[in-house]
């Protein structure tokens, strides 16, 4: 969610698109659990006994399962000490007929929460309990399978909070286990059960969630099997129908289709439809979280819970277009070459295997000589180990500069990154780490809104061999760059080969109303990929049809209809209503926007973005008192937000409250030293009372925004005798 100057009167810090990222996609097929086309995995067993056996014992088949005494006794060990979270203590009880977590309050009050379902089981077990209004909630204690230890569910995922609007760093420590982020119906159901319907009722904020089977069943990937079963039963014995009426991922799908089918669950993404079907394109149904998110280090290594797909898209193996997920993994999620993982690499990398000692600089039989040791190191987050699927070589130099993980120190725990980086440079005549550092530095600078290296950023975007993930990340981060040189580069990115780059470019062009931009966005509304179309339509919200090329108006209308549909994909998540509000506000409907923001605030009471943008809508209605109230509430929620303080300062200034306005604007500039708008407005406000400070603030604003002639003029000497000076 980026800060961007909106070039219109009134409040000028409209907060942008919010993505409600998920760690897994929508159900394999968007149907109700009772849909007669689905027969259940048991119907596959008579003809596919071997595969049924492999699936039913796999992590896919057991992604969620009911809690039983047998499961508790066989997989879990007793919790011997209470887990303390705030003023409350928690302990799991596993005895026969128990299976519950006891919460003990500060006054000795006790509540027992039954463990009705178990998620996971490979690294971690999470436990679900029913709460009010149909919610299935993740309990505050979870189980580390390898360590045989109980741990705090919320605390283990503490990197998750600071990067999501409404769960900022200032509030992370107080995040309760009952938070919607840990509600199964809202956040984590999509890839743990099959053929699910949440049946959310927005009017009562209630769920009536149902599913056909726990775990990921055969039909999630292969489609409904009723018709398949019927044509096979009708076929003469010993023959197979010409049309099997089933999705055959291994035989009929392309490499891209297979990868996209897996990515629906193995990606950190945001859904834009409710109907992904294996075989369809990922970016027709999802947006993807990239390196703009601080759960990635600037060089793209995992720091948080990122799943796989983003890293995979940066892999040279993915770039080849020949490798897909099921080359290394079975359809039930097992690793095909578990006994000798290097066998997965050898078909394409025989030259490296032939000179293993020289290539790895480790003994041929040592762990350091294994391909995955260097190219797929594991990182741990929330007690779970995940392999890096970017498959890039180690870059300890990036660790030294950015703190990102590297493979070398995963084994050599007694050494530092400088030691490892020195060896890598000594062993390789080509200093590949230099290019890693150069690219990562661009991301790191753009995250800080330091665009001093803008020419290098734009050169990277223009390079024909750029990495799509890195390029799209830069494009998203450039959304807040005030330099007009970004506009031609972003327009050019609308024609990039990657739909991820094209969609990101469309989103970042939303504040530019130059005719070439409008024409390019109108053309993008006819892009073959839905994600690009809706981002282009979003950028064009509020643009009058006569400002668009006549031959592009129909595409804009159609893409806008697709965009509006995305707001209802997850009615139980605040971001849909928030994004609807943004669309309505840009389209000139402040009353509708205020209603949408109110819904978002009801769903997520600690989210500040709906309050900030509701204030903007109220200001457009000349309701400055209402705008002030919304912003004061937002500031109570997040006193560290520069956007909140800045907008509050503007409203207070418009209401004639100069002293409080100056305090708020000063706070905004203190919180964000790149916010030229805050320095400029504070400088104007102080001209009469403190001309010396006003001059310095206006000078700083002009230095931060040398492209803005208004700032340059205001920074001129305040001397009435000087023609054209900035004196009032």
From TrEMBL:
Coiled coil: none annotated. PANTHER family: C-TYPE POLYHEME CYTOCHROME OMCC, DISSIMILATORY SULFITE REDUCTASE SIRA. Residues 705-728 are annotated as: Disordered. Keywords: Signal. This is Ammonia-forming cytochrome c nitrite reductase subunit c552. It comes from the Bacteria. Pfam families: Cytochrom_C552 (PF02335), Cytochrome_C554 (PF13435), HEAT_2 (PF13646). One of its GO terms (cellular component) is periplasmic space. GO terms for molecular function: nitrite reductase (cytochrome, ammonia-forming) activity. Gene3D superfamilies: Flavocytochrome C3, Chain A, Leucine-rich Repeat Variant, Tetratricopeptide repeat domain. Residues 182-223 form the Cytochrome c-552/4 domain. It comes from Solidesulfovibrio aerotolerans.
């Amino acid at each position: 969610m980026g800060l961007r100057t909106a070039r219109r009167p009134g409040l000028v810090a409209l907060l942008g698109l919010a993505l409600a990222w998920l760690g897994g996609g929508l159900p394999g097929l968007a149907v109700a659990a009772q849909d007669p086309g689905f027969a259940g995995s048991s119907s596959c067993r008579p003809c596919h006994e071997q595969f049924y056996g492999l699936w039913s014992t796999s992590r896919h088949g057991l992604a969620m399962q009911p809690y039983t005494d047998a499961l508790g006794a066989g997989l879990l060990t007793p919790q011997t000490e209470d887990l303390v979270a705030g003023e409350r203590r928690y302990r799991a009880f596993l005895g026969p007929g128990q299976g519950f977590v006891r919460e003990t309050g500060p006054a000795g009050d006790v509540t027992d929460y039954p463990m009705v379902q178990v998620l996971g089981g490979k690294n971690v077990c999470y436990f679900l309990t029913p709460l009010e209004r149909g919610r299935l909630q993740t309990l505050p204690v979870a189980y580390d399978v390898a360590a045989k230890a109980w741990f705090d569910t919320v605390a283990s995922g503490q990197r998750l909070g600071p990067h999501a609007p409404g769960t900022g760093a200032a509030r992370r420590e107080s995040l309760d286990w009952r938070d919607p982020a840990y509600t199964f119906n809202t956040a984590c159901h999509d890839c743990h059960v099959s053929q699910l319907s949440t049946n959310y009722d927005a009017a009562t904020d209630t769920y009536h969630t149902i599913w056909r089977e726990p775990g990921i069943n055969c039909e999630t990937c292969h489609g409904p099997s009723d018709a398949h079963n019927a044509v096979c039963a009708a076929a003469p014995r010993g023959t197979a129908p010409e049309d099997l009426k089933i999705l055959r991922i291994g035989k009929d799908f392309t490499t891209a289709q297979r990868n996209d089918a897996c990515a629906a669950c193995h990606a950190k993404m945001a859904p834009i439809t409710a109907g992904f079907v294996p075989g369809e394109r990922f970016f027709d149904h999802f947006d993807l979280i990239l390196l703009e998110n601080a759960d990635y280090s600037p060089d793209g290594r995992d720091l948080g819970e990122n799943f796989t797909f983003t890293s995979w898209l940066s892999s040279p193996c993915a770039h080849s277009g020949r490798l897909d997920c099921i080359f290394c993994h079975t359809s039930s999620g097992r690793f095909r070459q578990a006994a000798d993982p290097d066998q997965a690499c050898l078909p394409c990398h025989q030259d490296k295997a032939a000179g293993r000692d020289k290539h790895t600089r480790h003994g041929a039989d040592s762990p350091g000589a294994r391909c995955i040791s260097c190219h797929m190191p594991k990182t741990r987050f929330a007690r779970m180990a995940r392999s890096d699927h970017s498959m890039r070589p180690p870059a300890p130099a990036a660790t030294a500069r950015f703190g990102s993980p590297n493979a070398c120190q995963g084994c050599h725990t007694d050494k530092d990154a400088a030691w490892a980086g020195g060896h890598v440079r000594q062993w390789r005549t080509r200093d590949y780490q230099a290019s890693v550092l150069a690219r990562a530095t661009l991301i790191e600078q753009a995250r800080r809104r330091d665009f001093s290296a803008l020419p290098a950023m734009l050169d990277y975007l223009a390079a024909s061999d750029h990495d799509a993930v890195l390029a799209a990340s830069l494009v998203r981060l450039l959304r807040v760059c005030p330099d007009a040189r970004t506009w031609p580069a972003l327009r050019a990115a609308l024609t990039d080969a990657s739909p991820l780059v094209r969609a990101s470019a469309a989103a970042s062009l939303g504040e530019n109303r130059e005719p070439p931009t409008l024409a390019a966005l109108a053309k993008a509304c006819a892009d073959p990929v839905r994600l690009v179309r809706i981002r282009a339509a979003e950028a064009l919200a509020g643009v009058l049809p006569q400002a668009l090329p006549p031959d592009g108006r129909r595409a804009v209308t159609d893409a806008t209809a697709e965009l509006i549909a995305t707001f209802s994909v997850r009615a139980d998540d605040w971001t849909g209503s928030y994004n609807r509000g943004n669309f309505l506000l840009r389209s000139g409907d402040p009353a509708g926007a205020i209603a949408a923001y109110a819904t978002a605030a009801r769903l997520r009471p600690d989210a500040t973005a709906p309050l900030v943008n509701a204030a903007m809508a109220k200001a457009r209605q000349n309701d400055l008192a209402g705008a002030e109230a919304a912003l004061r509430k937002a500031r109570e929620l997040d006193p560290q937000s520069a956007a909140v303080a800045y907008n509050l300062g503007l409203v207070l200034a418009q209401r004639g409250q100069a002293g409080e306005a100056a305090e708020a604007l000063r706070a905004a500039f203190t919180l964000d030293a790149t916010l030229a708008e805050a320095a400029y407005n504070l400088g104007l406000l102080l001209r009469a009372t403190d001309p010396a400070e006003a001059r310095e603030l206006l000078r700083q604003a002009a230095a931060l925004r040398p492209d803005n002639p208004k700032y340059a003029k205001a920074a001129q000497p305040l001397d009435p005798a000087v023609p054209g000076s900035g004196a009032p």
